[in-house]
Write the structure tokens for this entry.
Amino acid sequence: METPDGAPILPKAELHLHIEGTLEPELILELAARNGKVLPHPTLAGLRAQYQFTDLQSFLDLYYANMAVLVTEADFADMTRAYLGRAREAGVRHAEVMFDPQAHLARGIPLTTAVAGISSVLADSFDEFGITTGLIAAFLRDRPEDDALDVLGQLLAMDAPIIGIGLDSAEVGNPPSKFIRLFDRARDAGLRLVAHAGEEGPPSYVWDTLDLLGAERIDHGIRCVEDSRLVERLATGQVPLTVCPLSNVRLRAVDTLAAHPLPQMLASGLNVSINSDDPAYFGGYAGANFAALVDEFGFDADTLERLAGNSIRSSFARDARKEELL
Ligand code: HPA
Ligand code: ZN
């Protein structure tokens, strides 16, 4: 099977996906109408015109503003269902989905609303979409660690069905060292550990994410190529890096896709997978990311298989599920 762009559809896992970043403009307007919310840009054309970013922060401003339309459990459920439908079309058969609990709490939305809305759909994802799933609570690194610890405590107390924690939002100026106690607490609770690092932040943030936080996977990690010792460390340990090519282009982490370090990362033997990050904002889902890579770099079938295989091997899926997908 092929996508309309000619890239083969391989079974794959999506490991770096913010569910709030799957809110398509059409759904934003629909939910705004449903909840009586007046948006600053109330038309589709007006809203779409906002999707031009100069850096991570310029995207985050819109991403957090658009979340205002998520009010009820049904809103969170509808968003999650829409993502799974699109992911299925792109060949995703296992998805580890991040959400931002603090962003919803800060808007006065109870944690139970967000968690129940998302997890009710994830619970049926295999039966409905043939996709196994896991939920990851991502903490906002531009907020104090005590706030994150408080919210993690609430998630654990309510027995939220999360498999792990992550770290996202504004990276530069919010180093991994700020969150050592959070990661220790999550580890003690038996949770898996991932974190964004080396998207806009320097290679030292990737080192510290491994050494101080004990993260098992690095989200993005593309700036590792600036430090050959770090590349060696990541290659030797086969540390998974969840790379998001279209996101990096749209947020200007790289000048163009042609200038993306992915080919160099592959040549260095790094364990990279391809992910869509915030697909409603960055120009497409996993399929569009793969298609853009084929178009730009002419990746052959072996490379595409390696990327898809890495995503499955680097997932937190059960071994039997991984074997089924490989
Ligand atoms: N980077 C950091 N934080 C985020 C992102 C991202 O790409 N998407 C949503 N929160
Ligand atoms: Zn991300």
